Amino acid sequence: MSSETPTRKRREEVYNGLKTSLELLGNLVKISPVPGLEGTILTVKGIMDIVESAKHNKQACYDIGVKINKLISVVHSELKDRDDIDTDKGTRTRVDTLESSLSDISRRLSDLAQENAFRRAINRVADADIILDLDKEVDECLRNFMLGTQLSTGLDIKYLREEAVRTRVLEDLDTGGWSSDRLCLPGTRKRYINRIWEWIRGSDEPMLCWLNGVAGSGKSSISHELAATLHAKRQPYSCFFFRQDDASLAVSAIKLLAYGLSFVSGLRELIIQAMEQTNDTRINLTMEEQFMALIVTPLQEFASICPFLTVVLVIDGVDECPAEIRPSFLAAIHSGVPRLPSSVKMFFASRPRGDVRGFVEDLKPLEINVAVGVGQDDGDVEQFLQHELLGICKAAGLERTWTASQIKRDAAALSSKACGLFQWAKLASALLTERVRPREVIARILNVDASSTPEVNLDALYTEVLDIALPGATDDKDIGPLFRQVVGTVVVAKQPLTISAIRTLLKAGGVDDGGAIRTVLENLGCVLALHHTRSGAVVVRIGHPSFYDYVTSPQRCPPTWLIDLHQTSVQLGSHCFSLMGRKLKRDICRMRNDICDTLSAHHNGLRYACNHGFTHMNGDSGNLRMLETFLMEKLLEWLEVMSLLKLLDTAAELMQRTLADLQQQNISISHVEILQDAIRFVGRFGSVINKSAIHIYFSALPFTPQETMLYRVYSLRYRDIPRVTLGYAESWPEGLCTVRSLGGNEDTPRRLAFSADSSHLALSTPTHLVMASSLTGVQLRKNRFGSSDGDTDMPIAMACRQGYLVSVTSSLLLRICESRSLKEIQLSLSPSSAEKLSSSNSPEVSCATFDQNVNILFVGYHDGHIQLWRQRHSSWEPDKDVHPRSHPSPVHNIATAANLLASISKRELKIGPYGDSKPGDVLGETLTLTPKCLAEVGDFGNSRLSFAATSATSWACAFSLYFSTSDTHSVYVFTSEDQKGRRILTTSSPTYPVYALSPDTSVVTIVCDELLWRWDTASHSLIEKCPIPGIDRASTRLDRFPVISPDGHLLALCDGEVVDIWDLMQPPPKHPKKGPSIKAAGVILTDDCYIVTTGKQKWLARVRDDGTSEDIVQLGEHKIELLAMSADETKLASLSFYQGKTHRGLLEIAELNSRKRATTTWPVALHDSFTGWDTCYMEFSATGKHIAIVFFLSEMSYVCACDLESGSLRWTQLSGKLEPLAVRSLQGEELIVVRARDLWKIDLRTLVSGRHELHTRDPYRMATCYARFTSIESSSILEMASRLWDKPPWHTIWNADNVAREEAKIRRAAAHLEVHGKNQFGHWVLDNMGQRICCIPEEYCSKWRIKSQSSINHDRLALLKGDGAVVIINLQAMMEHLN
């Protein structure tokens, strides 16, 4: 028996698991009965019992059991997702067939058992063959059942992230699938179709089939026919058809392929799981990552369950994929196809373009060429034309005058013109269909000069078709320009447009068509495709790629119909900016100001203009002038629309590309600055803008640094926004963004690593693994792995990609964060590797790294060997042998790029491939370099290795060394062209150099000693040197070492408790003169703002309008916990404690009209158990004779009343476990305490209290609940507001005198600060009705306590930042706008 034979324990586990699964499946069947299926399950149980009794043939039992387990999983997957399965005739038929087959197997096994021959003969070869035959029969039953199993619906469209794609699904628009009107005519293309089916069914055929041919040869029809046949045969498949005029859909090609696979039973759950893991809207996956996560991984899992099912992926028109997307898509296919299981076949159809051929031929496909030319089409073109002419004849009622023999002759004549080109035949047919006298048109077509070249004949036909569809265009000065504007817009558009959108865009450019645009488009139905959506709109698309080639080529198209791509794109860009200038406005969807999760679709033309206007600029001077106006007037309104469309990431990318273009143009510095500000604006406030677009104006703009161009321009345009009048920022922070909430302190070790595409940052602390966005700093996942004391191993290597983070420690403990969970795997060596690595039991690890795709782990050892682990499915498996490129001394560093591995030891630098090929590089052997500098280094602990490569023949390597004799750091660069290497930098700075090579190996970026260097690796010349102050504060520690992103644009470095991300490509922000700022220990707002000054001696001070303060009254020396102001604003009460929150407190009363120290003091003698309490409120009585202090401790409320005349203190306890929400003194000495369920009225003279029930929602389910006494109509009006998590607020009004509900018109006012510890972008200001009106960024909120360090009054908010700085925010103008 082989080594792979399962153990006895494993067989028993499988058998017991099968019995449990069958019981669960039987219960499921009883809930959703399917005729025959319950009997089938009983039959399967019988088979399992009989086969298991054959103890001597354990392997056969195991094999049959595994196959039956696959059946159970498939049936269970289908049953649990279908409510109407009892009405599905197809399911009943498949189950009946399955039951019949398995019953026959069961009967034969029972017969053997009854004759007592089974047990006696199992050791004989003949009876072993019987078991083998039974195994094959079970296999065939499973195959037949699975081939017929398809789900009626795929996964929910919520998993399709792009809003435009979801809209297409809902509107029944083109989503890249096959179409019934694009199929081959029955009986045609047999030669190609038969060969393709031989390839699908053949077990020895290549995984990839490439169908290629010239444009119009009929490739797409064959692809559509293949997809349709697969669908009809209910064979697992998915497909995607590229269109040249649809770049927006091409971006989602891989996701739509995965969406198609979700219609396959057994794959649906795997696809959903993959979609959930990668559906974070804050990050964009590369196409290579998408293909691995959404296609390869689910299919690998599916193949392990159903290895006998062939899954076919059909991809057509790759050559039509937009040029900016095609390389990424081809790279994804090139890297992903070899990892697909053998049960998957991929069908490709395209023109034989050079870039496509280069990628495809590396995969060694079955290549099928569609031949064209006279006599090369097997008569298919003539057969097609004859069929079409017969249909045209019948539709026109010409059967009497156009006989069958004449039709046959006409078809033969036209076929000779087509020269085997199907598109020529389809175009002629489409033209004839629209004509009243088709035979006259045929005669006109046949009179066109013919050529032996199919493409020339097609061009001539296009010219004739346009002349017929738009007669007189040569003479009419209006028709030609209108054609070029209308069709040109269709041709250059980045996505298909509706007729309405085309009219809107052209009208914005001054084209007043009066209905002519629709007429032109409808007359061109033979070359354009018009698709009617469910909503009634008509989408216009190019009929065939050959028309695009014809109409844009000066060599092929006459001037009347020629479209200049550049000029037309420039004009469309102008139309887009004109439309945005006219239509964009603030709050375009009238959301007011609260969170809006669902958005109504806006005008198609404006959507296109916002999404693609920047891409049509093309450096035109007129468009640049329009852009300048746009940046100064409409930039924020554009960001609002992009947020509504869920395209904020796209907006950031567009602005970055535009900024790079503008820096090459002659444009004013102010416009460059405002665009730079906008990029930082999105990075800083992107989270809150994504939450609600309208908060661009109410939460983002108010907290934009006030000396930036963006704030100076737009704060004048929008005067009703909140204003930070004190404590505002004047410039952007030095870093691009900050990753917060990491825990620890400035001594906590951290390890940082960027993803291969620089879009994510991975971080490790002693207790957590974190992945954050490199653009915004927002944490995307955070998984805990360590103990609270941090006594865990820090990783020696980390890597991440979208939705996936992995690290490894020196003890080879692999930590994997995926799908919101953390998994730990202890890696072990294969026996042969362990034997070769070391004679000791545990060889010591020296270094490690991951490849760019995070699928391979490389580990270097102190004995000089290197070991590889590869991710296969969900496990990491070691190579059977150690890597052949070993060193004679310890491996100090390793790095990978482009399937090459670089490793460095005491004496050697080695570079060679690590793929599945035999060891060796471009010369056939590993390249070994022995730089002299390595021998001069005593300690390699500080060395770092950076490696980049574009191919096996083009690479670069950089590393730094520390020389203790001279106390200097040196950076060396080696390249494939200069293998001797060169030292490019030497520094005596105490900080370590941080460096990275660009992906193309041409530039090395170095940061050290507050300077940035960029060196050319080929010439070793300095490209750039500029100061970057402040970046060296953490680079002296190896356990908090900074990292540069692979593209050289970003730098991540530790700063205390946070990690800052810097943009190295942009100039550092300006630092203007600091504005006024005040630090305080306490704050309270009345008509004025009062603060308690810091320092040992505290003063009560009034804040002036100019940002300065005026001392009024001297207070005590202890920390102020709470402040209160009397109704006449003549007295201020302060509550402080000797040693934090203990029972020894001090209450001081200060006269504001006197500058003498407060002498009226009372010791607040609390019970000894009063420690760790929450001070909730302090309030003067209406007469000013009493002070009431409300505490909340151990889920109990306490009220302390201080008589200011006698100095006596009285206490009372309020029953119930509810925390006080509001406290208010009404007439006399009466105090009202409001809680979530009740209202208490307390006489402060006697502490006699009364409780009144409030009928409110369950307070324990509330995310936020608060109360407020309004001063608009009556002092006894009480408002209560509450919010459930992500639910609309709930607001009630009460009369506090009689505790009865009231109906009153209440003015909206700022009322509450909603603080959540896990909020990633700040805390919300709520109004009295529970609506979120403004978000305070996190840096204004960190480390402050809401009760003692913030105050809201008169639509103003005052708070203390973490450093004690006072911030005052005026919300009055915004509240007037909202009212």
Automatic annotation (TrEMBL):
Q: Where is the Nephrocystin 3-like N-terminal domain?
A: 196-351
The record's listing under InterPro entries reads:
Adaptor_Cbl_N_dom_sf (IPR036537), MLKL-like_MCAfunc (IPR059179), NPHP3-like_N (IPR056884), P-loop_NTPase (IPR027417), WD40/YVTN_repeat-like_dom_sf (IPR015943)
Coiled-coil regions, chain positions: none
Does the record bear Mitochondrion in its keywords? Answer: no
Query: What keywords would UniProt list here?
Result: Repeat
Q: Please give the superkingdom of this protein's source.
A: Eukaryota
* One GO term (biological process): cell surface receptor signaling pathway
Name the chain's protein: Nephrocystin 3-like N-terminal domain-containing protein
